């Protein structure tokens, strides 16, 4: 890894709010770390002590569908078509709920849950990361 690559990584860390980066290449190990800027999250979730019980009960009733890979998320299978799912739609296991384009290949996102869509976490044609929340589902 050269200085130009390190500077690029540092710029991406700043742009996306990433505070730590570790990379191994052969016998070399690179560790970059920066302090969060005012108003920027450290990336760690913080729970309020007074409402932790209500959050636990909500978690039992809802779940998320996450991105299985990095790519561009599409809400429809073809341009110009309506979205595959909307808030309030009931989905079944095995139903296609979105598409991710990665390396010029389209990958259907198939639900492993049954329930009602309560929130769409990403917009059409947005870049998504591995394990990023795509949809929230109220489980049946």
Written overview of the protein:
By secondary structure, this protein is α+β, with helices and mostly antiparallel strands. Helix content is 17%, strand content 37%. The chain is built from two helices and ten strands. The strands form three sheets. It has a four-stranded antiparallel sheet with strand order 3-10-8-5. Mean pLDDT is 81; it is low at 41-52.
Shape: elongated
Report the average pLDDT across residues. 81
Q: Give the tally of β-strands.
A: 10
Spatial strand arrangement across the major sheet: 3-10-8-5
* Helix content class: 10-25%
Strand content: 35-45%
Number of helices: 2
What is the CA-based Rg, rounded? Answer: 19 Å
| Low-pLDDT regions | 41-52
Tell me the span between the first and last alpha carbons. Answer: 49 Å
Describe the sheet with the most strands. Answer: 4 strands, antiparallel
List the secondary-structure elements in sequence, H or E.
HEEHEEEEEEEE
Tell me the structural class.
alpha+beta
Please give a quick description of this structure:
With 140 residues, this protein is of the alpha+beta class.
Can you lay out the helices and strands and say which pair or pack?
Blueprint: H1 3-16, E1 20-25, E2 28-33, H2 52-61, E3 62-66, E4 71-74, E5 90-91, E6 96-102, E7 105-110, E8 115-120, E9 126-128, E10 133-139
Antiparallel strand pairs: 1-2, 3-10, 4-6, 4-9, 5-8, 6-7, 8-10
């Amino acid at each position: 890894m050269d200085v130009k690559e390190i500077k690029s990584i540092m710029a991406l860390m700043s742009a996306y709010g990433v505070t730590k980066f570790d990379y191994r290449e052969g016998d070399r190990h690179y560790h970059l770390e920066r302090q969060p800027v005012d108003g920027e999250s450290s990336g760690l979730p913080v729970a309020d002590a007074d409402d932790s019980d209500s959050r636990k009960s909500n978690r039992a009733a809802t779940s998320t569908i996450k991105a299985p890979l990095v790519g561009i998320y599409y809400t429809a299978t073809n341009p110009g078509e309506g979205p595959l799912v909307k808030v309030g739609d009931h989905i079944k296991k095995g139903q296609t709920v979105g598409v991710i384009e990665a390396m010029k290949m389209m990958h259907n996102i198939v639900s492993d849950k049954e329930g009602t869509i309560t929130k769409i976490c990403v917009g059409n044609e947005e870049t998504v990361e591995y394990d990023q929340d795509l949809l929230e589902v109220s489980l049946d």
